[in-house]
Design a protein that fits this description.
Elements (H helix, E strand, L loop, with lengths): L1 E2 L5 H10 L5 H12 L13 H10 E2 L4 E7 L5 E6 L5 E8 L4 E4 L3 E3 L8 H4 L2 E4 L2 H15 L5 E4 L9 H12 L11 E5 L3 H7 L7 E5 L5 H7 L8 H15 L3 E7 L7 H10 L5 E7 L12 H13 L4 E3 L13 H8 L1
Parallel strand pairs: 1-2, 6-9, 9-10, 10-11, 11-12, 12-13, 13-14
Antiparallel strand pairs: 3-4, 4-5, 5-6, 7-8
Helix pairs in contact: 1-2, 5-6, 7-9, 10-11
The structure holds S-adenosyl-L-homocysteine and iron/sulfur cluster (SF4).
S-adenosyl-L-homocysteine binds next to strand 10 and strand 12.
Length: 340
């Protein structure tokens, strides 16, 4: 049976028309699926009985079971979902004064094995389907009884290694007949998969891009992120410069702060030099220590590093550490569950 959320609007419409239904039925179904967040064909009360029966006979809406829900002191909600094959992924809802952001996963596990990352340590299991990516948004909205504004593809997995399903999910969530979330309200976070960055620059609608940088020293970056041996720092920077020439959009860099490793005054100068041709914002995140090798710098060390960046004209913000008391850093909840 086909998961209905794996079909784009056009694919659904074509399928319906080929089976003697009307083109506008696609719009009604999108309304139920993505505006009303319906997870059951029987509840789609304005569809004819024959259409409902047709949908039930040909499609499923896959279920996401809440395996664990945690709420942090600052209100951040994190859910570990059980998928239909028993695999698990997590999503996080972050509450800001006037809007809600979701952080969602793109793969079960990740093949890239970054040294500091809990997801990477558990290896790769499988890609999520477009439907499973979209459904994290639907089920999370239903769970928190709220509407999302921004969606960041920054949970478990490497989005550009599941490119087609990620783009399909964005196009569906962006579709005017569905949730109609603005394209610039989506952010894809990548470890630096160059072919993915190049492909994205050719999409009709381009979401925001965030790149996990963590070091501007090629050797150090390869130590932290093995993928850097394949797509080296200099090639990555060249590809980002090209991307920005086309999109004109500011690029965000994620930069975890590791004591005695990547946040000295010298590092600040290297960052400024290496990224001088890119319009950017740096998100500084004190490392979440999943491994004894990586410690957080002290507040003083962070503040000296940030002042130096500022003096060099590099915009950097210390990321508000929402949800640290519930292990909201990617992959950690799943790891704990699978270990226990
Ligand atoms: N694979 C993509 C997106 C998922 S990882 C990527 O790497 O960008 C999402 C973010 O969480 C990345 O910026 C990653 O570097 C960060 N991250 C992973 N483990 C972390 C940890 N232990 N502490 C802080 N940030 C971490
Ligand atoms: Fe994969 Fe991103 Fe974790 Fe690296 S940081 S292992 S790319 S999920």
């Amino acid at each position: 049976m086909v998961d209905i959320q794996n079909l784009s609007y056009d694919e659904l419409q074509e399928y319906l028309v080929n089976n003697s239904f009307k083109p506008y039925n696609a719009s009604q179904i999108f309304d139920w699926l993505y505006k009303k967040n319906s997870t059951d064909f029987n509840s789609m009360s304005n569809l004819s009985k024959s259409l409902r029966e047709f949908l039930i006979g040909n499609f499923v809406i896959s279920n996401m079971k809440i395996m664990k829900k945690s709420k942090s002191n600052d209100g951040t909600v994190k859910i570990l979902w059980e998928l239909s094959d028993g695999q698990t992924v997590e999503s996080v809802a972050l509450f800001h004064p006037n809007h809600i952001t979701f952080c969602i996963s793109t793969q079960v596990g990740c093949a890239l094995g970054c040294e500091f990352c809990a997801t990477g340590r558990n290896g790769f299991v499988r890609d999520l389907s477009a439907a499973e990516i979209i459904n994290q948004v639907i089920f999370l909205e239903n769970a928190i009884k709220g509407s999302v504004k921004n969606i960041v593809y920054m949970g478990m997995g490497e989005p550009f290694l599941n490119y087609d399903n990620v783009i399909k999910s964005i196009n569906t969530l962006n579709h005017p007949k569905g949730k109609n979330i603005g394209i610039r309200n989506f952010t894809i976070s990548t470890s630096g998969i160059i072919p993915g960055i190049d492909r994205l620059s050719n999409e009709e609608k381009i979401p925001r891009l965030s790149v996990s940088l963590h070091s501007v020293d090629n050797k150090k970056r390869s130590y932290l992120m093995p993928i850097n041996s394949k797509y080296s720092l200099d090639d990555l920077i060249t590809s980002l410069e090209k991307f920005q020439k086309k999109t004109k959009d500011r690029i965000t860099f994620e930069y975890i702060l590791i004591k005695n490793f990547n946040c000295s005054i010298e590092d600040a100068h290297q960052i400024s030099k290496k990224l001088k041709n890119i319009k950017k914002m740096m998100n500084l995140i004190p490392v979440n220590p999943v491994d004894k090798r990586f410690k957080r710098p002290s507040e003083d060390e962070i503040s000296i590093f940030m002042k130096e960046l500022e003096a060099l004209g590099v915009t950097a913000v210390l990321r508000n550490e929402k949800g640290t008391d519930i292990d909201a850093a990617c992959g950690q909840l799943r790891r704990r569950i699978s270990e226990s």
